[in-house]
Amino acid sequence: MTLHRSSPLDQSSLSARQALAHARIQSFIEAYRNEGYRIADIDPLGTISVPDIPALLSQTHALEDEDIGLAQHRLLDGLGLRTVKELTHHLSRLFCGPLALDGSGVRDEARRQWLLARMSAPDPGAESGMPERAAILARLAAAEQWEHYLQQDYPQAKRFSLEGCESLLLMMDALVERCSFYQLDRLFFAMPHRGRLNLLVNLLQMPAAEIVAYFDASRTTVAAAGAVDLPYHLGAETVRRTAQGEVALFLAHNPSHLESAYPVLLGMARGYRASHPLAAPPASVVIHGDAAFCGQGVVMESLKLVRQPGYEVGGTIHIIVNNQIGFTTPNPLDPENHGYCTDIARIVGAPVLHVNADQPEAVLRAARIAFDYRMQFHSDVVIDLVGYRRWGHAEQDTATVTQPLLHGFIDKHPSVTRLYAQAGWPGSDEGAALLTASRQQALAAFRASRVGDSREPASSRPASEVGARDTSLPTLNRLRQWVERMTRLPVGFDAHPVIDRLVAQWQHSVAAPEHACSWNFAENMAYASLLAAGHSVRISGMDVQRGTFMQRQAVWHAVDQAQARQHSFWPLREVAAPGAALEVINSPLSEEAVVGFEYGVSVQARPDALVIWEAQFGDFVNGAQIMIDQYITSGRGKWGYGSALTLLLPHGYEGVGPEHSTGYLSRMLLLCADHNIRVAYPSSSAQWFHLLRDQALQADCPLVVFTPKTVLHTEPRASSPLSALLEGAFQPLLEDPEGPPQDQVRRVVLCSGKVRHDLAAARDKVQDARTALLSVEQLYPFPTAQLGEMLHTWPALEEVLWVQEEERNQGAWLCVRDAIEAALPAAVRLRAVYRPDTASGPTASKATHYAQQASLMHAVFPQG
After folding, report:
1. In this predicted model, what pLDDT tens digit does every residue of 215-248 receive, in sequence order?
2. Residue range 261-270: average pLDDT?
């Protein structure tokens, strides 16, 4: 017998053919991994045109059947695939089915491979037995029946139906279960209007009758409970029992401003972590609408925000309830041009799981993958729940007026419950029978619900009108000890000359009780005193560590020349008690998201924590006006949220342009009602010191402070003696220590902020001996009673004059006039002096500013 052996040339040829086959298969697989989502079966209505993608065609890769056997590719092991057609079917099933992965924004290869492995592997959490399928059907029926129940009994109710995306309830169920699996006992989430009532009842277990009471004009339960907001703005809390244990669910209240709840929710999660350091960190989930997710700038701000130090929450799961429409404007998926509402998630490298809302088991799988990814990488992940909207924007809208073609498809399309009943029990009436029973059971539960409204009326804890609460320090020696520890620099720390001068100033300030204390010293000592007593302090905003006007200097820097490294020294940490957290965070260039985040932190923070946001310039608060209007000033009244957030708005006319001069004092005062906030405008460092301590120790509402920029920091009259910090309290109304005798006073000038010192200088210049100066340091609540008592101490008083450096419409005058009149003695006149109103606002140049300031002083003291 003759044996024939392969020649080395034959073996080399075979190896080359195998390598080429392997490369072709690998290229084909990668094409499906990268582009498969673009042809995936994720649209329940099937109205989206699927593009022809050359990369997904086998001929593009010159792939042939014999390559399958030659390649011996590890990804094909054990699959028994023999033809290109079988391979194509396999890849389509993995990457182009009702659940598809868009990893095009994921820049980290390890994360991308983890996601691809999960998409390729069997779902470890899937349970497809009959009891599991029946449970899924029952939940879908509950979601569907709730909408039918309201439509039947309350057809005029605006409920923002979930119909078309009922599987959102399943997704939230799965996330709660996964939360418990990871031993996380709390889940915070936020969502817009659509589907909120459904989740309140079916997920958060709110009695159906509580919701119905909002729609039933014959019932008074809601009014009796003090509800003042719309039902689809309401939040709730509950505890859900799972197979792994209990999970506390917290749904944040929110107004109609789209996506504004997103950063607030993140702040709440962060605040909870800070106030419960020993508890497991909570999970955060945010539900979005498709048009809002890609259309509201606060989404982009918030996505980036949590990637910055001081704002991390451990990753957020985003769910987009994708109806492919925004109010009446189509917002369809556009696979041809890579157009998806989720594309903005690329800015943080977040993966997107597109899932067909009519495929409940795929929806559950998407939830499990998303939660596992969040836990694995502590990063954001997006689930695009693609469905449709069976009704218009609200149920009373006639959607066929603007979208007749689309609603022609929707009207013919079966509900997800019917589809699942047919698919889960094919060829049998059992599914239909289970569906009928589940619907009847859900309806009976809704109608049997009785109002057990345990909600207390939303109320305001009134801020003190007087506010003279003791905030003095224990001893001078204690203050000296803090300064000694805070100014003891580390060995080798070569401080900047600015810091050297600061250290000398601080040490001089505590040398004797009569020594002057700067605003910088007063602020830092307020924080030091709080931290030493165990209170936490959190300050965020643009450049707050140094301060825009060099006014804070909470972090000192030096360079180690030997190692060419920069070192930082935090003086306040040297005096902080164990457990007292100090965070001074330079925020991204964002206002709306950051203020929303800090508000959320303040709602969940310890009551004795001081949480501060500082505007770089006062006018920058414009970017956060939604948060101020809808949350900070009204959150307690609408929802009962307790917040003691402090806003610092640099304010004062110094000739730096029409915007940077102002923090819009009048706008803040127009938001005041029912003691919802405090508005202060201090004029001295001691007042600043006591105000900060008062807010931390005894705050009962948010505080808005109009803080100085440059001029007031350098004004000698504004620097209080050390003794004023050691004793006393914040005074809403400051007396005149240099005023004339009581029986000589004919006129009282009322003012706020730095103009007090300009007026004092002008009075000295003209040697006026008949005018007393009173500084209103707290503009709301206005100290009317205290002012009345003071005014009655001057027996010869003829006139009260309100003076402000702002224009008539920009300052406080129009908001405090009535309160001043209420305090006037009989026959005393009241008038105001202010700058002329201009369309551009405050003066634009320093020269013009000083001229107008001089004119203002002359109007008050004409003889000058």
Report:
1. 877 665 554 445 578 999 999 999 999 989 999 9
2. 98
Contact 721, 479 (CB under 8 A): no
Does position 467 have pLDDT exceeding 60, yes or no? no
φ/ψ (deg, to 5) at 404: -65, -40
Contact 602, 536 (CB under 8 A): no
Residue 68's pLDDT band, with cuts at 50, 70 and 90, is confident
How far is residue 137 from each of residues 130, 169, 206, 861, measured CA to CA in Å? 10, 11, 21, 81
What local confidence, expressed as pLDDT, does residue 612 receive? 98
CA 426, distance to chain mean position in Å, is: 47
User: What is the tens place of the pLDDT at every residue in 92-136?
Assistant: 999 999 999 999 999 999 999 999 999 999 888 777 788 999 999
On average, the pLDDT of the chain sits at 91
Fill in the amino acid letter for 349.
Answer: G
- Condensed to tens digits (0 to 9), the pLDDT of residues 540-573 reads 999 999 999 899 999 999 988 777 788 899 999 9
d(CA 28, CA 81): 14
> What are the E-state strand segments in 621-763?
646-650, 678-680, 703-707, 720-721, 733-734, 747-751
Query: Region 74-83: what's the mean pLDDT?
Result: 77
CB 68 within 8 A of CB 76: yes
**What tokens does 565 get?**
């490294």
Tell me 470's DSSP state: B
Reference 734, options 780, 772, 704, 702; nearest CA is: 772
Name 406's Cβ contacts closer than 8 Å, sequence gap at least 6: 45, 47, 325, 330, 399
Say how far apart CA 123 and CA 127 lie, in whole Å. Answer: 9
Contact 612, 658 (CB under 8 A): no
Phi-psi region of 827 (alpha: psi -120 to 50; beta: other; left: phi over 0): left
Residue in 774, 652, 781, 758 with CA at minimum distance from that of residue 704 = 781
Residues 634-661 have a mean pLDDT of 91
Rounded to whole angstroms, how far apart are CA atoms 541 and 863?
45
Residue with tokens 């991994």: 33
Between residues 745 and 447, the one the model is more confident about: 745
Residue pair 796/740 in contact (Cβ under 8 Å)? The answer is no
Q: What is the pLDDT of residues 185-198, one digit of tens each?
A: 999 999 999 999 99
Rounded Cα distance, 851 and 193, in Å: 53
Using the predicted structure, report yes or no on whether residue 462 has a pLDDT greater than 60.
no
Beta-strand ranges (E) seen in 205-307 are 236-242, 245-251, 283-289
From 667, 556, 547, 665, select the one nearest 612 (Cα to Cα): 547
In this structure, what token pair is assigned to residue 641?
């949220």
Cβ atoms of 624 and 632 within 8 Å: the answer is: no
CA-CA-CA-CA torsion sign (306, 309, 311, 314): positive
Give the residue carrying structure tokens 């948010």. Answer: 702
Segment 10-33 shows an average pLDDT of 85
Tens digit of pLDDT for each residue in 579-592? Answer: 999 999 999 999 99
- For residues 587 and 421, what is the distance between their CA atoms, to the nearest angstrom? 51
Alpha helices, DSSP H, located in 353-403: 360-377
Element containing residue 42 per DSSP (H, E): none
CA–CA distances in Å: residue 802 to residues 193, 256, 759: 46, 39, 12
The residue whose two tokens read 């007063």 is 522
Contact by Cβ (8 Å): 599, 270: no
Q: Report which DSSP code applies to 490.
A: P
Q: Give CA angle at 598 (592, 601), nearest 5°.
A: 140
User: pLDDT band for position 656 (50/70/90)?
Assistant: confident
Nearest C-alpha neighbor of 403 from the set 385, 384, 390, 416: 390
End-to-end CA distance of the chain: 130
The two tokens of residue 69 are 């056997």
Question: Crossing angle, helix 8-35 and helix 84-95, to 10 degrees?
Answer: 30
